[in-house]
Amino acid sequence: MAELLLIGALALVVGGCVCVVWAERGGPRWVRVAAAVTLAAGEMLRRSGKNQRRGLSRTGDDGGGE
Fold first, then answer.
1. Which residue would you say has higher pLDDT here, 36 or 64?
2. What does pTM read for this prediction?
């Protein structure tokens, strides 16, 4: 079961990369939409990784309580 999830995730990533390259070369509208979604998802992952490395939390609690 875990293998199927990993294969599915890999297929989505590869498909997204293909759509980004194809959209840069002027692909159809659905390819440009898929590329935009892929790039937005990558940006969200990048930002969440930066926040985790910096130790930022969404609750605003810095752990400096009494």
1. 36
2. 0.67
